[in-house]
UniProtKB/TrEMBL annotation:
Residues 200-281 form the L-proline 3-hydroxylase C-terminal domain. This is Aspartyl/asparaginyl beta-hydroxylase domain-containing protein. Residues 17-172 form the Aspartyl/asparaginy/proline hydroxylase domain. InterPro entries: Asp/Arg/Pro-Hydrxlase, IPNS-like_sf, Pro_3_hydrox_C, Pro_3_hydrox_C_sf. Gene3D superfamilies: B-lactam Antibiotic, Isopenicillin N Synthase, Chain, L-proline 3-hydroxylase, C-terminal domain.
């Protein structure tokens, strides 16, 4: 299912600047799934299974606890308390991406299939150089909009600027038997909005793609593979090609180059990112 807007929160009712300044002051540390990203990518846990601020691992816990970061972000805490149902909520984070991208991947592939997973994304800052994408197109999220990001399909994100773009991310999980997927509480003041979300991208024909693949075949190697992966993953944000086109280009380039090592690595990576992985499994292109 395509990602979509389900409503908007009026952020003018909340004085969030102090909270944003605090979040931007937190020093980044290594975290779960850093291998998905290039540039500055930070996920700060506001609520999780352990209540520990450094814990960024998703779990299907029955109870979630506030972390030190949420206690410092009183207005973001109000946004959550005012608008969202806590039943079924498994994790709350803020997510920031600066001068970087998150390569195409699927989430939840390593989790229990007896649950339906729902991810909400609410931008807290304006940034015209920030884009998200999924298998249906490329779009920009505006401050206060509540998005269902279908993280179970291939998706990616990019920030072409050096400016912050903090999002509030709420992850829910409901048992497949549970038909009541209520995520808003009774006090919520959600404005309904309907707008065209997809941006226009430049066309790219097969000949253009063949030229890219040919060029890649001349420079692909175990030393360049990681850099090439992030480079080709940017194309779909500008050109009308599938979100995972870069994986296919690299596979074809490795075959042309006769580079079996790179071909095997990109095959294993695409499996890891979009097909199947175990909880806690990691993948490195450089090891």
């Amino acid at each position: 299912m395509a990602s979509r807007i389900i409503g908007t929160i009026d952020l003018s009712e909340y004085t969030i600047m102090d909270d944003l300044n605090y979040l931007n002051s937190v020093v980044k540390v290594a975290e779960e799934y850093d291998e998905f990203c290039q540039g500055y990518w930070q996920n700060l846990s506001l609520m999780n299974a352990s209540g520990e601020a450094h814990d960024s691992l998703y779990r299907n816990s029955k109870i979630i606890l506030p972390t030190h970061h949420l206690k410092k972000c009183t207005e973001i805490s109000r946004i959550i308390q005012d608008n969202f149902e806590l039943t079924g909520l498994k994790m709350v984070r803020t997510r920031n991406l600066i001068d970087g991208m998150v390569i195409p991947h699927k989430d939840f592939v390593e989790l229990n299939k007896d649950y339906n997973y729902l991810r909400l994304m609410i931008p807290l800052q304006e940034n015209s150089q920030c884009f998200n994408s999924d298998e249906f197109g490329v779009f920009q999220m505006r401050p206060g909009e509540i998005w269902i990001l279908d993280a179970a399909i291939s998706h990616a994100a990019i920030n072409f600027s050096t400016n912050s773009r903090i999002f509030l991310c709420l992850d829910y999980a409901f048992s497949v038997e549970n038909k009541n997927l209520n995520i808003f509480n009774k006090s919520a003041k959600i404005l309904m909005e309907n707008r065209h979300i997809y941006i226009n991208r430049k066309p790219m024909n097969e000949s253009d793609q063949d030229h890219i693949i040919e060029g890649l075949s001349k420079i692909i190697s175990s030393f360049t593979l990681r850099d090439l992966l992030f480079a080709v993953s940017k194309y779909h944000f500008v050109y009308h090609v599938p979100v995972t086109a870069g994986f296919d280009w690299l596979k074809k380039a490795a075959i042309i180059a006769g580079d079996e090592e790179s071909h095997n690595k990109i095959n294993k990576l695409s499996r890891y990112l979009i097909e199947a992985r175990e909880l806690g499994e990691r993948f490195s292109l450089t090891s």
